Amino acid sequence: MDHIDKTILRLLQEDSKISAKEISKETGSPINTIYSRIKKLEDSGIIKGYKAILDDTKMGFSTTAFILANADLSQVDLEKYPDYSISAEIHKFPQVQEVFVVSGSWDYLIKVKGSTPTSLGEFVLKTLGMVKGLSATMTMVVFRKEKETLDLPI
């Protein structure tokens, strides 16, 4: 990956609707080269896709929380369900945006969105709390978002 690829990626991160013509002008590369490079970046999986980024508050999801969770697989019959995955179970819930397996005193870090703190509390108690193999959770509600981005520092 050279500086032109990195410039293409930076421009697409800033605005995924930018035209190949504008990228061509910015990089000084012919438009056909830009199309070819973007296709190569997509085919290699560096560019995973394109999505609209929605305003969570305007969409009614004004509450964000991070949940730390611990696993206890002794609660799960692994002989009956050898492929059981706590992460896969957590992924299924639409409130969940991200799931990480982490080091330290907790096993998982889960990012969730909801309409209110009460709705997220209900989710933690009645939905997440029913996932087999989760033994404990600690929820941290976000009071104010200072920065949130999917951009990589290119």
Give an account of the 3D structure:
Helix 2 (20-27) packs across helix 3 (31-43). The protein has helices spanning 3-14, 20-27, 31-43, 86-91, 117-127, and strands spanning 63-71, 96-101, 108-114, 134-141. It folds into two domains: 3-43, Orthogonal Bundle (Arc Repressor Mutant, subunit A), CATH 1.10.10; 63-141, Alpha-Beta Plaits. The model has no long low-confidence stretch (mean pLDDT 95). Strand 2 (96-101) and strand 3 form a beta hairpin. The radius of gyration is 21 Å and the shape is elongated. By secondary structure, it is an alpha+beta fold.
State the major sheet: 4 strands, antiparallel
Which fold name corresponds to the CATH topology of the largest domain? Alpha-Beta Plaits
The tally of helices reads 5
Please report which band the strand proportion falls in: under 5%, 5-15%, 15-25%, 25-35%, 35-45% or over 45%. 15-25%
What is the molecular shape? elongated
Order of helices and strands: HHHEHEEHE
Supply Rg. Answer: 21 Å
Short description:
With 154 residues, the chain is an alpha+beta fold. It is built from five helices and four strands, in the order αααβαββαβ.
Features:
154 residues; Alpha-Beta Plaits; Arc Repressor Mutant, subunit A; alpha+beta
